[in-house]
Amino acid sequence: MTNLFHKQFKINGISFDTVEEILAVTSNISSDIHTFLQDWFSVKPTISVQTSGSTGIPKVIELKKRHMINSAFATAQYFDLPAKTTALLCLPITYIAGKMMLIRAINLGWQLDIVDATSYPLKNVSKSYDFSAMVPLQLENSLDKIDGIKKLIVGGGVVSNQLQDKLQKVDCQVFATYGMTETITHIAVKKLNHVHKYPNFYEVLPNVSIYKDERNCLVIEAKNVSEEVLFTNDVVQLISNKKFDWLGRFDNVINSGGIKLHAEVIEEKLAKVIKNRFFVAGIPDEKLGEMLVLLIESVVKIENETFLKSKLFEEIKSLKTLSKFELPKEIYLTTQFIETTSGKIQRKKTVESLQF
Hints:
With 356 residues, the protein is an alpha/beta fold. It is built from nine helices and 20 strands. Helix 1 runs antiparallel to helix 2 and helix 3 packs across helix 4.
Protein backbone atom coordinates (compact mmCIF):
# COMPACT_ATOMS: atom_id res chain seq x y z
CA MET A 1 0.00 0.00 0.00
CA THR A 2 1.18 3.53 -0.80
CA ASN A 3 -0.09 7.07 -0.21
CA LEU A 4 -0.51 6.77 3.53
CA PHE A 5 -3.10 8.90 5.26
CA HIS A 6 -2.99 11.69 7.84
CA LYS A 7 -3.70 10.39 11.35
CA GLN A 8 -6.34 13.12 11.95
CA PHE A 9 -8.34 11.93 8.94
CA LYS A 10 -11.92 10.85 9.67
CA ILE A 11 -14.93 9.78 7.63
CA ASN A 12 -18.36 10.27 9.19
CA GLY A 13 -16.73 10.66 12.59
CA ILE A 14 -14.69 7.44 12.34
CA SER A 15 -10.91 7.57 12.74
CA PHE A 16 -8.53 4.94 11.37
CA ASP A 17 -5.31 3.12 12.18
CA THR A 18 -4.86 1.30 8.90
CA VAL A 19 -5.73 1.59 5.22
CA GLU A 20 -7.66 -1.67 5.53
CA GLU A 21 -9.95 -0.01 8.08
CA ILE A 22 -10.64 2.87 5.67
CA LEU A 23 -11.52 0.43 2.89
CA ALA A 24 -13.76 -1.60 5.18
CA VAL A 25 -15.73 1.48 6.30
CA THR A 26 -16.07 2.96 2.81
CA SER A 27 -17.31 -0.36 1.39
CA ASN A 28 -20.44 0.21 3.49
CA ILE A 29 -20.82 3.83 2.35
CA SER A 30 -20.39 3.68 -1.43
CA SER A 31 -19.03 1.13 -3.86
CA ASP A 32 -17.70 3.98 -6.05
CA ILE A 33 -15.80 5.56 -3.15
CA HIS A 34 -14.52 2.17 -2.02
CA THR A 35 -13.26 1.32 -5.53
CA PHE A 36 -11.61 4.71 -5.92
CA LEU A 37 -9.80 4.40 -2.57
CA GLN A 38 -8.62 0.90 -3.43
CA ASP A 39 -7.03 2.46 -6.51
CA TRP A 40 -5.68 5.41 -4.51
CA PHE A 41 -3.95 3.22 -1.91
CA SER A 42 -2.51 0.85 -4.53
CA VAL A 43 1.11 0.99 -5.74
CA LYS A 44 0.01 2.39 -9.09
CA PRO A 45 1.39 5.98 -9.43
CA THR A 46 -1.60 7.34 -11.37
CA ILE A 47 -5.39 7.57 -11.15
CA SER A 48 -7.72 7.19 -14.14
CA VAL A 49 -10.20 10.07 -14.27
CA GLN A 50 -13.13 10.71 -16.60
CA THR A 51 -13.45 14.20 -18.09
CA SER A 52 -16.92 15.78 -18.06
CA GLY A 53 -17.24 16.15 -21.83
CA SER A 54 -18.56 19.71 -21.67
CA THR A 55 -16.03 20.94 -24.24
CA GLY A 56 -15.48 17.79 -26.26
CA ILE A 57 -15.81 14.03 -26.27
CA PRO A 58 -15.59 12.61 -22.71
CA LYS A 59 -12.33 10.75 -22.24
CA VAL A 60 -10.33 9.01 -19.54
CA ILE A 61 -7.01 10.59 -18.60
CA GLU A 62 -4.28 9.53 -16.18
CA LEU A 63 -3.40 11.90 -13.31
CA LYS A 64 -0.33 11.43 -11.16
CA LYS A 65 -1.11 10.87 -7.49
CA ARG A 66 1.69 13.20 -6.42
CA HIS A 67 0.08 15.97 -8.51
CA MET A 68 -3.24 15.34 -6.81
CA ILE A 69 -1.58 15.64 -3.40
CA ASN A 70 0.10 18.89 -4.50
CA SER A 71 -3.31 20.23 -5.56
CA ALA A 72 -4.77 19.32 -2.16
CA PHE A 73 -2.05 21.24 -0.32
CA ALA A 74 -2.44 24.28 -2.61
CA THR A 75 -6.16 24.44 -1.75
CA ALA A 76 -5.42 24.12 1.96
CA GLN A 77 -2.82 26.88 1.78
CA TYR A 78 -5.05 29.29 -0.15
CA PHE A 79 -8.15 28.81 1.99
CA ASP A 80 -6.33 28.24 5.30
CA LEU A 81 -7.69 24.75 5.93
CA PRO A 82 -5.42 22.90 8.39
CA ALA A 83 -5.72 19.45 9.96
CA LYS A 84 -9.04 18.80 11.72
CA THR A 85 -10.92 20.97 9.20
CA THR A 86 -14.52 19.75 9.09
CA ALA A 87 -15.65 19.18 5.51
CA LEU A 88 -18.70 17.89 3.66
CA LEU A 89 -18.50 15.75 0.51
CA CYS A 90 -21.75 16.09 -1.48
CA LEU A 91 -20.41 15.74 -5.02
CA PRO A 92 -20.36 12.50 -7.05
CA ILE A 93 -17.08 10.63 -6.86
CA THR A 94 -17.29 9.95 -10.61
CA TYR A 95 -15.50 13.16 -11.56
CA ILE A 96 -12.39 14.94 -10.32
CA ALA A 97 -14.13 17.41 -7.98
CA GLY A 98 -15.56 14.65 -5.81
CA LYS A 99 -12.34 12.65 -5.86
CA MET A 100 -10.32 15.67 -4.73
CA MET A 101 -12.51 16.28 -1.68
CA LEU A 102 -11.50 12.79 -0.53
CA ILE A 103 -7.81 13.33 -1.39
CA ARG A 104 -7.73 16.62 0.53
CA ALA A 105 -9.27 15.00 3.58
CA ILE A 106 -6.94 11.98 3.46
CA ASN A 107 -3.73 13.97 3.08
CA LEU A 108 -4.56 17.04 5.16
CA GLY A 109 -6.21 15.27 8.08
CA TRP A 110 -9.72 16.62 7.58
CA GLN A 111 -12.80 15.28 9.30
CA LEU A 112 -15.00 14.46 6.30
CA ASP A 113 -18.69 13.68 6.30
CA ILE A 114 -20.20 12.09 3.19
CA VAL A 115 -23.80 12.58 2.04
CA ASP A 116 -25.60 11.57 -1.15
CA ALA A 117 -24.75 13.71 -4.18
CA THR A 118 -28.25 15.10 -4.77
CA SER A 119 -29.61 18.45 -5.93
CA TYR A 120 -30.50 19.22 -2.27
CA PRO A 121 -27.30 18.19 -0.45
CA LEU A 122 -28.07 19.94 2.85
CA LYS A 123 -31.66 18.70 3.14
CA ASN A 124 -30.87 16.25 5.96
CA VAL A 125 -27.72 17.96 7.26
CA SER A 126 -27.81 19.55 10.72
CA LYS A 127 -24.08 19.94 11.44
CA SER A 128 -21.83 22.88 10.60
CA TYR A 129 -18.69 22.63 8.45
CA ASP A 130 -15.56 24.61 7.69
CA PHE A 131 -15.47 23.72 4.00
CA SER A 132 -17.40 22.12 1.14
CA ALA A 133 -17.75 22.11 -2.64
CA MET A 134 -20.93 22.23 -4.74
CA VAL A 135 -22.21 22.83 -8.25
CA PRO A 136 -24.42 25.93 -8.79
CA LEU A 137 -27.71 23.99 -8.67
CA GLN A 138 -26.81 22.48 -5.29
CA LEU A 139 -25.93 25.93 -3.96
CA GLU A 140 -29.17 27.43 -5.29
CA ASN A 141 -31.14 24.72 -3.47
CA SER A 142 -29.17 25.13 -0.22
CA LEU A 143 -29.38 28.88 0.43
CA ASP A 144 -31.59 28.43 3.51
CA LYS A 145 -28.91 26.30 5.21
CA ILE A 146 -25.70 27.44 3.53
CA ASP A 147 -24.57 29.47 6.55
CA GLY A 148 -23.81 26.11 8.16
CA ILE A 149 -20.72 26.10 5.93
CA LYS A 150 -17.95 28.67 6.49
CA LYS A 151 -16.21 28.43 3.10
CA LEU A 152 -17.69 26.99 -0.08
CA ILE A 153 -16.20 26.54 -3.55
CA VAL A 154 -18.53 26.32 -6.55
CA GLY A 155 -17.63 24.76 -9.90
CA GLY A 156 -19.01 22.77 -12.78
CA GLY A 157 -20.97 25.69 -14.24
CA VAL A 158 -21.45 29.45 -14.24
CA VAL A 159 -23.04 31.08 -11.19
CA SER A 160 -25.85 33.29 -12.50
CA ASN A 161 -26.21 36.96 -11.61
CA GLN A 162 -29.44 36.17 -9.77
CA LEU A 163 -27.74 33.55 -7.61
CA GLN A 164 -24.79 35.84 -6.96
CA ASP A 165 -27.20 38.55 -5.77
CA LYS A 166 -28.73 36.07 -3.31
CA LEU A 167 -25.26 35.17 -2.00
CA GLN A 168 -24.75 38.71 -0.72
CA LYS A 169 -27.31 37.93 2.01
CA VAL A 170 -25.52 34.86 3.40
CA ASP A 171 -22.55 34.68 5.78
CA CYS A 172 -20.93 31.69 4.07
CA GLN A 173 -17.88 32.76 2.04
CA VAL A 174 -18.54 31.54 -1.51
CA PHE A 175 -15.87 31.24 -4.20
CA ALA A 176 -16.22 30.42 -7.89
CA THR A 177 -13.48 28.14 -9.17
CA TYR A 178 -11.70 27.94 -12.50
CA GLY A 179 -10.12 24.69 -13.58
CA MET A 180 -10.57 21.41 -15.38
CA THR A 181 -9.81 17.73 -14.95
CA GLU A 182 -6.35 18.25 -16.48
CA THR A 183 -5.49 20.85 -13.79
CA ILE A 184 -6.87 18.57 -11.04
CA THR A 185 -9.82 20.88 -10.25
CA HIS A 186 -9.22 24.57 -9.65
CA ILE A 187 -6.09 26.56 -10.35
CA ALA A 188 -7.85 29.90 -9.74
CA VAL A 189 -10.69 31.20 -7.56
CA LYS A 190 -12.93 34.26 -7.40
CA LYS A 191 -14.87 35.42 -4.35
CA LEU A 192 -18.57 35.79 -5.13
CA ASN A 193 -19.96 37.55 -2.08
CA HIS A 194 -19.01 40.34 0.32
CA VAL A 195 -16.44 41.66 -2.16
CA HIS A 196 -15.47 45.23 -1.40
CA LYS A 197 -13.92 46.02 -4.76
CA TYR A 198 -15.65 45.45 -8.12
CA PRO A 199 -15.21 44.07 -10.66
CA ASN A 200 -13.78 40.97 -9.06
CA PHE A 201 -11.42 38.66 -10.95
CA TYR A 202 -10.06 35.13 -10.77
CA GLU A 203 -6.83 34.84 -8.79
CA VAL A 204 -4.49 31.92 -9.38
CA LEU A 205 -3.37 29.58 -6.61
CA PRO A 206 0.25 29.31 -5.45
CA ASN A 207 2.80 28.01 -8.01
CA VAL A 208 0.60 28.79 -11.03
CA SER A 209 1.66 31.02 -13.94
CA ILE A 210 -0.67 32.30 -16.67
CA TYR A 211 -0.46 34.08 -20.02
CA LYS A 212 -2.43 34.32 -23.31
CA ASP A 213 -1.89 32.76 -26.71
CA GLU A 214 -2.54 34.41 -30.09
CA ARG A 215 -6.28 33.62 -29.77
CA ASN A 216 -6.43 35.51 -26.44
CA CYS A 217 -6.99 32.15 -24.73
CA LEU A 218 -5.56 31.33 -21.32
CA VAL A 219 -2.35 29.31 -21.10
CA ILE A 220 -1.53 27.65 -17.78
CA GLU A 221 1.82 26.59 -16.38
CA ALA A 222 1.28 24.69 -13.14
CA LYS A 223 4.12 22.19 -12.79
CA ASN A 224 2.93 21.05 -9.37
CA VAL A 225 -0.20 19.59 -10.93
CA SER A 226 0.70 19.11 -14.61
CA GLU A 227 4.02 18.56 -16.33
CA GLU A 228 2.55 19.90 -19.57
CA VAL A 229 1.76 23.52 -20.41
CA LEU A 230 -2.02 23.64 -20.84
CA PHE A 231 -3.47 25.62 -23.75
CA THR A 232 -7.13 26.24 -23.01
CA ASN A 233 -10.02 27.41 -25.18
CA ASP A 234 -11.03 30.03 -22.61
CA VAL A 235 -10.87 33.60 -23.86
CA VAL A 236 -9.64 35.86 -21.05
CA GLN A 237 -8.53 39.36 -20.24
CA LEU A 238 -5.33 39.36 -18.20
CA ILE A 239 -5.53 41.81 -15.31
CA SER A 240 -2.07 40.94 -13.99
CA ASN A 241 0.25 37.92 -14.00
CA LYS A 242 -1.91 36.49 -11.20
CA LYS A 243 -5.44 37.68 -12.07
CA PHE A 244 -7.72 37.31 -15.09
CA ASP A 245 -11.27 37.92 -16.24
CA TRP A 246 -12.98 35.00 -18.00
CA LEU A 247 -14.87 36.14 -21.11
CA GLY A 248 -16.06 32.80 -22.50
CA ARG A 249 -15.14 29.80 -24.61
CA PHE A 250 -13.26 30.32 -27.88
CA ASP A 251 -15.56 27.66 -29.34
CA ASN A 252 -18.53 29.92 -28.52
CA VAL A 253 -17.20 33.09 -30.16
CA ILE A 254 -19.68 34.19 -32.84
CA ASN A 255 -18.34 36.11 -35.84
CA SER A 256 -21.32 38.11 -37.08
CA GLY A 257 -20.55 40.54 -39.89
CA GLY A 258 -16.94 40.79 -38.74
CA ILE A 259 -17.92 41.56 -35.12
CA LYS A 260 -16.70 38.97 -32.61
CA LEU A 261 -19.35 38.27 -30.00
CA HIS A 262 -18.68 36.32 -26.80
CA ALA A 263 -21.69 34.11 -26.10
CA GLU A 264 -21.17 33.97 -22.34
CA VAL A 265 -20.88 37.76 -22.04
CA ILE A 266 -24.20 38.19 -23.86
CA GLU A 267 -25.85 35.44 -21.80
CA GLU A 268 -24.87 37.16 -18.56
CA LYS A 269 -26.80 40.23 -19.72
CA LEU A 270 -29.80 38.29 -21.03
CA ALA A 271 -30.13 36.39 -17.74
CA LYS A 272 -31.84 39.46 -16.26
CA VAL A 273 -34.97 38.82 -18.36
CA ILE A 274 -34.88 35.07 -19.12
CA LYS A 275 -35.74 32.59 -16.39
CA ASN A 276 -35.58 29.30 -18.34
CA ARG A 277 -32.33 27.64 -19.37
CA PHE A 278 -30.97 29.29 -22.51
CA PHE A 279 -27.89 30.05 -24.54
CA VAL A 280 -26.97 32.08 -27.61
CA ALA A 281 -25.26 30.69 -30.69
CA GLY A 282 -24.28 31.55 -34.23
CA ILE A 283 -25.99 29.87 -37.16
CA PRO A 284 -24.88 30.16 -40.82
CA ASP A 285 -26.08 33.31 -42.60
CA GLU A 286 -25.29 34.42 -46.15
CA LYS A 287 -24.86 38.11 -45.33
CA LEU A 288 -23.37 38.01 -41.82
CA GLY A 289 -21.47 34.75 -41.97
CA GLU A 290 -23.03 33.85 -38.62
CA MET A 291 -26.32 35.14 -37.25
CA LEU A 292 -26.77 35.53 -33.50
CA VAL A 293 -29.76 33.51 -32.25
CA LEU A 294 -31.22 32.77 -28.84
CA LEU A 295 -32.23 29.23 -27.87
CA ILE A 296 -34.54 28.71 -24.90
CA GLU A 297 -35.43 25.41 -23.26
CA SER A 298 -39.16 25.10 -22.56
CA VAL A 299 -40.24 21.68 -21.32
CA VAL A 300 -43.90 22.77 -21.44
CA LYS A 301 -45.45 23.33 -24.88
CA ILE A 302 -46.08 27.03 -25.44
CA GLU A 303 -49.59 27.70 -26.78
CA ASN A 304 -48.90 31.17 -28.16
CA GLU A 305 -45.26 30.96 -29.17
CA THR A 306 -45.38 34.03 -31.45
CA PHE A 307 -46.75 36.25 -28.69
CA LEU A 308 -44.17 34.98 -26.20
CA LYS A 309 -41.28 35.68 -28.59
CA SER A 310 -42.59 39.17 -29.36
CA LYS A 311 -42.88 39.99 -25.65
CA LEU A 312 -39.41 38.61 -24.96
CA PHE A 313 -37.88 40.61 -27.82
CA GLU A 314 -39.26 43.80 -26.24
CA GLU A 315 -37.77 42.91 -22.85
CA ILE A 316 -34.40 42.13 -24.44
CA LYS A 317 -34.36 45.41 -26.36
CA SER A 318 -34.95 47.27 -23.09
CA LEU A 319 -31.65 45.98 -21.68
CA LYS A 320 -29.33 48.98 -21.77
CA THR A 321 -26.24 46.82 -21.31
CA LEU A 322 -26.73 45.09 -24.68
CA SER A 323 -25.13 46.65 -27.73
CA LYS A 324 -26.99 46.54 -31.06
CA PHE A 325 -24.67 43.74 -32.19
CA GLU A 326 -25.58 41.65 -29.11
CA LEU A 327 -29.32 41.62 -29.85
CA PRO A 328 -30.39 38.13 -31.01
CA LYS A 329 -31.89 38.16 -34.49
CA GLU A 330 -34.14 35.16 -33.82
CA ILE A 331 -35.50 33.22 -30.83
CA TYR A 332 -35.97 29.46 -30.94
CA LEU A 333 -37.77 27.31 -28.37
CA THR A 334 -36.90 23.66 -27.84
CA THR A 335 -38.25 21.14 -25.36
CA GLN A 336 -34.88 19.87 -24.15
CA PHE A 337 -31.21 20.75 -24.59
CA ILE A 338 -28.73 17.96 -25.26
CA GLU A 339 -26.55 17.45 -22.17
CA THR A 340 -23.39 15.68 -21.07
CA THR A 341 -23.69 12.92 -18.47
CA SER A 342 -22.82 15.53 -15.83
CA GLY A 343 -25.71 17.79 -16.88
CA LYS A 344 -23.83 20.45 -18.85
CA ILE A 345 -25.43 21.79 -22.02
CA GLN A 346 -23.84 20.58 -25.25
CA ARG A 347 -24.30 23.71 -27.32
CA LYS A 348 -23.04 22.48 -30.67
CA LYS A 349 -25.03 19.24 -30.59
CA THR A 350 -28.18 21.11 -29.49
CA VAL A 351 -27.85 23.59 -32.36
CA GLU A 352 -27.17 20.79 -34.83
CA SER A 353 -30.29 18.92 -33.64
CA LEU A 354 -32.55 21.84 -34.57
CA GLN A 355 -33.67 22.47 -38.15
CA PHE A 356 -33.34 26.16 -38.93
